[in-house]
Amino acid sequence: MIKTGIIGGHTLAAGELIRILVNHPDVTIMWVSSPQEGGRKLTAVHRGLEGDTDAAFIGAPSASDAEALDAVFLCGEQWEARQFMELAGNAPDLRVIDLTGAFRDGSAEMVYGLAEHNRKALVRGAKRASLPSEVAMAAELALFPLAKNMMLYGDIELKASLASTVRENGAAAASEGNLTELSTRRDPVAPAENRPDAETAGIEITKAMRSVQPSFAGEARVSLSRDGVAARGIKVTAVVDCPQPLSELVRVFNEAYDDHSFTFLIDREPELADAANTNKCLLHIRRDENGMVEITSVIDNLLKGAAGNGVHCMNLLFGLSEKTGLALKGSAF
């Protein structure tokens, strides 16, 4: 069994991780850390875990806590992630999955956790992965097949619509207490000041696409808005100048994701509810009235945009089937 710990255990992403990992056939959760929640039961902070675990949060982890692990998920604040990496310096074989973005620049020997592009690197000897932000995840999955086939030309316009999210002090909403509604939730694992804005997301997407298509000289320009109805999810619409026939683009997308388990091109425009509570990314491609190619990408921000992708990367780091523990039931219908 993979002995696993979670930093920043009070966050929404950590709650989703716990819900997945308690049912993962190859994982044992050793501890969940949250200094502000230390001693409280996990069920007091994260709904839906009754009957699955009686565990309580620990405070700040010790060096011995780190040494007892095979894998750790870094949620919470970026300084917490960096602090833990210093603590875990004597555990060179520890697999690390960073959800905070602290190591998204590739530092600390992190592989960028876009598994649809970096699966070979994650399987073949990597020990650490830093996940894309949720905006970048949805956008990059929309653009990856074009970049893979050297089809990105010029600047890319991206519109991201993010669901409203309610939380209490960074955790799942509890039955009591003051609830804070966040008008835009761009990163479900970090406090507001550490969530990427539109410019930062655009830089991340541009860098990722250039790693796939080095000749890409354009820029990804992102605008963000709020979906005031949906409880979770993110929809990104990418508009690109691509002269190839639509039938050829459909072939390129299907070929790019043919041997991947979570990303699918469908023949209608997806809604947030279609991907809610799953690790799927649903894509649709069409040509707009101006002759531009419009690609719609929909994901669940807490799963494919965070916890689900984290488990996906963990599975690859340990050589497991990428779908292990992630056969999740959509529950919006």
Description:
The protein has 333 residues and is of the alpha/beta class. Helix content is 27%, strand content 22%. The protein has helices at residues 12-21, 63-67, 78-87, 115-123, 134-148, 198-212, 246-256, 272-275, 307-317; strands at 2-7, 27-32, 71-74, 95-98, 111-112, 128-130, 156-163, 165-168, 171-172, 180-182, 220-227, 234-240, 263-265, 281-287, 293-299. It has a 6-stranded parallel beta sheet with strand order 2-1-3-4-6-5, sandwiched between helices. It has a 6-stranded mixed beta sheet with strand order 11-7-12-15-14-13. Strands 9-8-10 form a 3-stranded antiparallel beta sheet, with no helix packed on it. Helix 1 (12-21) crosses helix 9 and helix 5 packs parallel to helix 6 (198-212). The chain is globular and about 60 Å long. The model is unreliable at 166-195 (pLDDT under 50).
